[in-house]
Amino acid sequence: MNYCDFLFNTDERFLDNEVIVDAENDNRLSYRELKEAVLKVAVLLKTRGVTSGTVVSSHLYNSAEAAIVLLAVQYIGGVICLIDPLFKADELKYYINDSGSKCLITHLDRSIVKNLVDTEIEVFEVKEIEEAYKSDVEYSLIDMHKFQQDEMAMLLYTSGSTSTPKAVMLSNNCYYTFLEKCNKSMYTYTIEDRLICFVPFSHAYGSVSLLIPVLSHKAAIVFMRSFHPTKVAEIISKENITHIFGVPTHYQQLLRYDSIMKYLRKLKAAFCAAAPLTYDTASSWYENVGIYLDEGYGLTEATTLIATRMSMLPQPSGNVGFPPEGILEIEVVDENDSVVDDGIIGELTVKGKGLMIGYLKRPEETSERIKNGKLYTGDFGYKRSDGSYVISGRKTEFINVAGLKISPIEIEAALNSHSDIIDSAAVGVEDSLYGEVVSAFVVTKEGSKVSERELIKYLSTKLANFKLPKQVTFLDVLPRNNIGKIDKKALRK
């Protein structure tokens, strides 16, 4: 078993089909060319000492090279460690040291990195990878490594919003479980399908949720280095894109451009994940584009997908649908670890296939998250009578006002229902009397004159008094991380 099986088992009749398009430079690879490129880079890495079990860090933007490196490392049995390409040289030191990387492939200058790292490490610049797979030099064939089912194959770092980032260890088996989940609860692609990838390939969203099913179903993936609404529309038209993937803010921005609706209406499907999707955004997308905005809920610790809501609106906001039947089971438990009744908020736990091995070199934190074969997600929510699940917010983000726990998603949904609000966030801030109080942050439409007092009055018709914000701050834009999640730690500061 190997990630590369999805590529190297391609039938001869599909080998000349296009599989990768790099929209930044129009670099295009067929399945045949991708196989050859992976082999060439695998040979290069092996000659530099990369063997099975070697941790190789990839610090690359969305590109053909990022996909080739991932596959080449997996081909020889290495452990691929994906690092956000937006991280500067000074930030790399932590990830290289923590992961134990012996090799780094980066878009930065080699000399800058070498001077920062304490340990001996082989460093490749991305141009060397490109030269290697585009060269006409003869190369010797090497055997593909066969991973054991639970052998570590990938390291993905969590955002570290409440502590230093932790490396999630995923086994090779997790790849196959994800494909099984995708086929059952998400999409089954065809060779005509073309997926656009502007979400980070350094995140499981791009490297697992998109590339694996593309290779398995002999579809194609089009990489964009960054997101811009009009550029996305151009590529949808030019490359005959069928499926689009993003986070809520991507869809909110796309909906602002009436001129690109004709391109968006060519899509077969649109999928949203990684951050809460409001009913208003989903409804507006359906009304303007003519297809539902499907939604997924997942965690890196569960190899992304845990539940999906397909071909329906999120009613109520936070409804993420159903787990893949026969693969994962969700339970909602109270603080005593007892399963609660439908409609009662508790912590969501997950058991089944595709869960992480654990956190690298963090046994205590691993044992806190995985107990009795169940992953404790850290997300609060509840089960509805129809079997779907509603996410109420992160355990660490719930606001505790005088002992009463408040879901920030509930406040944000109420704020977003106001006609002048584009986006919002609610956080808890320290208060000497109540312990915490609600503080809200909003982005308003251009020309809006709505005041803090008017917004709080509006909310008073929708929320209990103890849930009302004590203050509302107006911002031009909400701070977000690279995947599109609102940075609530920054807002609290």
How would you describe what is shown here?
The chain has 493 residues and is α/β, with parallel strands linked by helices. The protein has a domain at 397-492: GMP Synthetase, Chain A, domain 3, CATH 3.30.300. The chain is 30% helix and 27% strand. The chain contains 16 helices and 26 strands. An eight-stranded mixed β-sheet has the order 2-1-10-9-11-12-13-14, with helices on both faces. Strands 6-5-3-4-7-8-18 form a seven-stranded mixed β-sheet, sandwiched between helices. Helix 3 links the parallel strand 3 and strand 4. Helix 2 crosses helix 6. The longest helix is centred in the first third of the chain and has 17 residues, at 31-47. The model has no long low-confidence stretch (mean pLDDT 94).
Biggest sheet, spatial arrangement of strands: 2-1-10-9-11-12-13-14
Distance between the termini: 46 Å
By DSSP, the count of extended strands is 26
Reported for the largest beta sheet, the result is: 8 strands, mixed
In short, what is this structure?
The protein has 493 residues and is an alpha/beta fold.
How are the secondary structure elements laid out?
Blueprint: H1 5-8, E1 18-22, E2 27-30, H2 31-47, E3 55-59, H3 64-75, E4 79-82, H4 89-99, E5 103-106, H5 110-114, E6 122-125, H6 126-134, E7 152-157, E8 167-171, H7 172-185, E9 194-197, H8 204-217, E10 220-223, H9 229-238, E11 243-246, H10 248-254, H11 261-264, E12 269-272, H12 279-289, E13 293-299, E14 304-309, E15 319-321, E16 328-333, E17 346-352, E18 358-359, H13 363-369, E19 370-371, E20 374-383, E21 389-394, E22 399-401, E23 404-406, H14 408-416, E24 421-431, E25 435-444, H15 452-460, E26 471-474, H16 488-492
Parallel strand pairs: 1-10, 3-4, 3-5, 4-7, 5-6, 9-10, 9-11, 11-12, 12-13, 25-26
Antiparallel strand pairs: 1-2, 7-8, 8-18, 13-14, 15-21, 16-17, 17-20, 19-20, 20-21, 22-23, 24-25
